[in-house]
Structures are given as structure tokens and as C-alpha cells.
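Comment thread on ticket #2218

A.B. wrote:
> Attaching the input chain for the structure job we discussed in standup.
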Amino acid sequence: MTEYEKLKDIIGQIDTLIEKQVNWQSPEMKAWHIKAMRWVINHFGEKSYEATSFIKIHYYSFHLDEATDIRECINGLIQAKAVLSSYLEELETTEPPEDRSSK
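C.D. wrote:
> Ran it. Output below, let me know if you need it in another format.
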């Protein structure tokens, strides 16, 4: 799987997480976040602007009610989708089409 395909898959999972109304505590959300962070760090570097910016996206609140936690998680996922989509667009303009799919 190419970097392009990996990122496209990570972005594609966001809508499913939003639809399921996950919160930060859910195993699916934690697994997605680890996968997304790993992609950003592997692609840009651990100390890059992109990695430090992605880390700053909040998916949780300090409120005790579940509805607020879900809303905050969804807001974070929407922000992450916008950021990751911009990286995908960048790959589309810099990576030759034949390098975007595994052979």
C-alpha cells in the first residue's frame, strides 16, 4: 500500500467514526488516532510543523457528559479530515499517478 493509499484510507475512516458518534475513549477512535499520527510522523517527521500541529487537534473535553465528549470528538475529527485532506491534495500534485496505487 502506498503512502497515498494509506492516507486516503485514514481519511475515509473519519466519516465512519463520525457516523458511529465515537468519543475519545472508544477503541476505534484510539486506533484511528494512532494510525493517523503514525502516518503524519512517518511522512513529515516527529518534530515537523505538521506533526506538532496535528497533535494539537483536540478530540475530547473536560466535561463529564457524554454528549459533549462526542461533540468534541466529532469536531476534532472534522478538523483532522481537513488537515489530512490537504496533505492528500499535496500528494496528488507531487506524486506521479503510477506511484499512487500499489502494483
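A.B. wrote:
> Thanks. Noting for the ticket: The radius of gyration is 14 Å.
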